[in-house]
Amino acid sequence: MTAAHELAERGFSVTLYERRALGGKSRSVPVPGTGRGGRRDLPGEHGFRIFFGFYQDLPDTLRRIPFPGNRNGVHDNLVPGTELLTSLSGGREDLRIPLTLPDGLLAQLTPADLLRQVRALVETAFRLPPHEAAVFAQRMLVYLTSCEERRLGQWEHTTWPDFLQAQGKSEDYRRILVHGLTRVLSSTKTDTASAHTAGLVAERVLFNLLGRGAEGPLDRVLNLPTNEAWIDPWERHLRDLGVEFRLGWEVRDLVVDRGRISAVRTRDPQGREAAVSADFYVCALPVDHARHVWNADLLAADPRLREAATLDTEWMTGLMLYFDRPTPLVHGHAYYVHAPWALTSISQAAFWPGRDFRDDYGDGTVADCVSVIISDWDEPGVLFGRPAKELTGEQVVQEVLAQLKQHLDDSGRTVLDESSLVTWFLDPGVSGIGGPNPVNADELVVHPVGSWHRRPTARTAVPNLFLAGDYVQAPINGASMEAANSAARTAVNALLDEAGSSAPRAVVHKLYRAPEFELIKTEDSLQYRLGLPNAFDLVPLPVR
Fold first, then answer.
1. Which GO terms describe its molecular function (predicted)?
2. What mean pLDDT, rounded, does the chain reach?
3. What are the tens digits of pLDDT across the range 480-503?
4. Domains in the chain, please, with CATH?
């Protein structure tokens, strides 16, 4: 949809083919048949989504989608989450961490000041032992002062646990700082997660908290279900721009002729197959689906796609829990530190002031939805002792409730009242769980060490084929809405170049760079080329 938007604004005739529903992993998924008495169906989704304040390209798109009553279009539907709940099990009090820092906390980012402030932030927020907070602060300083060559040449091939020197550290250090950024934010298996990707996300979060390079508050969500707040208005706007939609159409194959795409083989909703021809093609399928249409002819025309086809994907999927009373666990997201399934959640009603669950959704009995993300489907749970993939849907719900209650209700009071649960809804992309062949139609690309070099660019070796998706190389090296948006803009610019168009290019925002560190990064570039460690790397890891 981003590519269609950018191209339509530049006068191109665009037809968009979509097999299931618009919006991909970002869409809402109404729970079929749950609406009564003129109410809408209960709002479900693939999983809650965060519009991080360090995003730049996606917010620009949101501003350009009209929304009634909003001066800045859909962008005005973003509202901040003000807290992060770090929930611990075992009778320990949970930590509510404010997501804003005092103004002027760091006017200058000198290495010494940054080291002190990051150490203080981590030590205070997560109650880590002082020496471990110091290690984390020192490792972040190493990453922040590393040149791009070192990030791609050394840290891309170093695991996040090794980079953070996790061996021998406390369980809280490993679960909060090591596992949190990998399992929760990107569903990447921590043991193999690239320090380049995890470090980049940590760097962006830190700069965002410090008010550097931020488009808005760190944690933002929509003030309505995603389709109402964003996807439906976007579809209407694209139709107004002349975009044609072929919903329910499946792309089956790409036809390569003399080094170019000559047609796309499609199947319509009635099962009829047809070849569709165009001047240019943007493949915006997720990589787990795109690799099925990258046939032998295409791989011969662009051998780089062979490596892209091997990119790793994992399950990261949403479970909606609907309660008959408001369930405001925290005004923001919650991370359940000791949950074996790497759970996170958000209570949605507090962020939807324009909607009342009882009046607007379902049968009038639901007052809130706790949207839970299951980021690890392969780890045994606490109730049945088996991974989520091996359980039925009902068992998954029971297991998730058990893990949530181990965290929320372990300090002598009931926070999550299981008796108020009305119903639940699991992402419909998941099927066959509890059986021999579980399937997830919406897997998430992940980032083990070395994977950056397997990720393709938006421009392929086939002159009229371009790639868009969160697996394509983009400024944010992580599976996210921002990465997908940036990749689509890059694909459009490559298409404009190929077409010889004089239209203005889509803006692809560069990541913020702290000017105070530029000289240090220049020196680090020389150090790296000489095979020497970063100047702040007190216990250096091998340089590759």
1. oxidoreductase activity
2. 92
3. 999 999 999 999 999 999 999 999
4. 2-17+50-79+221-304+455-499 (3.50.50.60), 102-210+513-529 (no CATH)
